Amino acid sequence: MALRFCSFNVLAPSARICAPLNRRPWQEWLPLPLGGEERHAAICDCLLQLEADVICLQEFDFAAGTHGFAVLYQTPGFSEGKKLGEVYELHMKQRTGDKNEGLAMLIRRSAFKDIEVLCEELEPDFCDRVAMYAKLTHVDSGCRILVANTHLTVAHADNSHDIPFCRPRQMEQVLHRLLAAQCCDAVFLCADMNSDHLEREPSGPYPPEMVNRPVTMAFEQGFASALHARHPGVRPISHTCSYAQDGCADYVLFRGHSGLQLHEAFLHPNDLPLDVPWSSSTGWGDDAQATLSDHRPLVVDFSIAAAHNKL
């Protein structure tokens, strides 16, 4: 039975917007035909076209200046006249400390039942980071799965706490909740990790293995990265970065029983190479639909065998 995930940092309109995205409005309350220039309306359409069963978004905007942002994600959609809200159940969690952005999770209504969503505020509290967890029963297979969504603190090298303490502490909490889950056939973590485990350059005084510690913590607990498992020998670039080298900040990490099989993983658009560099003139490419954010959407396809109680 097929199971598709999408993890995407959509670059909140209230965030610092890099070129060339600073020349593209986030959204206007005017209807435009397919191919119009509103960035987040185009993101909504892209998400519909990708047809994921679970979509995990980071930098989902809650700012007063972007009133109606959540409404936009629930209503407009150009593909076949559909709307995201007609297909997906939307759950959101704003960061603490009056931060303007946070997380969102869209769960396909027809693919799951017995949906339970829990949100958590991560320590240390001065980082204002959060996580979302969804326990779901996959209708086709009968399997019970757990999906987490989070966005870790940026690896600031100009202080003594983010890299050695804050980020590992955040990952420790997320992993603890995932590993403590009972009666789950498979566990998935969709995240902007703000680090790339294939990076070999230090960040200030910190060696790469310390910067990338959150990712290796997941590996040590038996999780695998879908994108890297499907494309060994390639260093993908999913995020352009003003404070570090560009790299793969976005992960879909997974672990499960033998009935869970990874089939495909790609950065959208699939026809662009995984390691295509960011351009301040064209973003990810000449096609405006390729450059919706300073991240590329990560899409992963699994199959999962029927639960024993359905055999």
UniProtKB/TrEMBL annotation:
InterPro entries: CCR4/nocturin_mRNA_transcr, Endo/exonu/phosph_ase_sf, Endo/exonuclease/phosphatase. Transmembrane segments: none annotated. One of its GO terms (molecular function) is 3'-5'-RNA exonuclease activity. Residues 9-295 form the Endonuclease/exonuclease/phosphatase domain. Pfam families: Exo_endo_phos (PF03372). This is Endonuclease/exonuclease/phosphatase domain-containing protein. It comes from Cladocopium goreaui.
